[in-house]
Amino acid sequence: MTCGIIRRVPEPSQPMYESFAAEFEAHARDGAYNAHYDRPALLELLGDVAGLDVLDAGCGPGLYAEELLARGAAVTAFDASPEMVKLARRRVGSRAEVRTWDLERPLAWLPDAAYDVALMALVLHHVEDRPLALAELHRVLRPGGRLVVSTSHPTTDWLLKGGGYFDRVPIEETWQTSWAVRYWRQPLEAWCEEFADAGFLIERLVEPRPAPTMAARHPEVHQALERAPGFIAFRLVKA
């Protein structure tokens, strides 16, 4: 999670991560917040996925899908960015179905109750129509199925951006030096309301600690995340 100056985000016709997909892949492979923070936390929340049907929603370059496959899951993945999909397909080959699809649209190609688990890793805060996305993920999960979600921590957003903690506003900014992004900032109760409205119960809430591997690779970030969380993660159950 890298913050910078505010700038114009890409036009809606171009998926947000499309223009910097390859740069993001290179960054996320060993980046502090991706490789040593979010991925370890979400993989732990997912638990044993061997033999399960898993949907990776907003799969990016396929780093999570690759690990899920290694752990014995049957994986279906999609992303709004065609470039991200190319990278994911290159990573997982024929071992998983990967296609281009936007979470702002109904998942019309997926049948009801088809998956045991769904994953949304640092995706939901970029989605404008979150009620639709969550309702669709609820629909494609089997009874008792789980959705694992991560997003930026509401208190971190508040402390970085100022204003009121209870603000529900879109943020437009630049990460790294040129990655124009847009995401939603809102309080914890708003996230919980959206989950409940979609028919999910919160089974577990985690404020991740950095993985031990971060200490050597990114010592300053490790020290900061030992003091205060950067992300928050949820394991939700289809009610």
Automatic annotation (TrEMBL):
<keyword id="KW-0808">Transferase</keyword>
<dbReference type="Pfam" id="PF08241">
    <property type="entry name" value="Methyltransf_11"/>
</dbReference>
<dbReference type="InterPro" id="IPR013216">
    <property type="entry name" value="Methyltransf_11"/>
</dbReference>
<dbReference type="InterPro" id="IPR029063">
    <property type="entry name" value="SAM-dependent_MTases_sf"/>
</dbReference>
<dbReference type="InterPro" id="IPR050508">
    <property type="entry name" value="Methyltransf_Superfamily"/>
</dbReference>
<dbReference type="GO" id="GO:0032259">
    <property type="term" value="P:methylation"/>
</dbReference>
<dbReference type="GO" id="GO:0008757">
    <property type="term" value="F:S-adenosylmethionine-dependent methyltransferase activity"/>
</dbReference>
<feature type="domain" description="Methyltransferase type 11">
    <location>
        <begin position="55"/>
        <end position="149"/>
    </location>
</feature>
<keyword id="KW-0489">Methyltransferase</keyword>
<protein>
    <submittedName>
        <fullName>Methyltransferase type 11</fullName>
    </submittedName>
</protein>
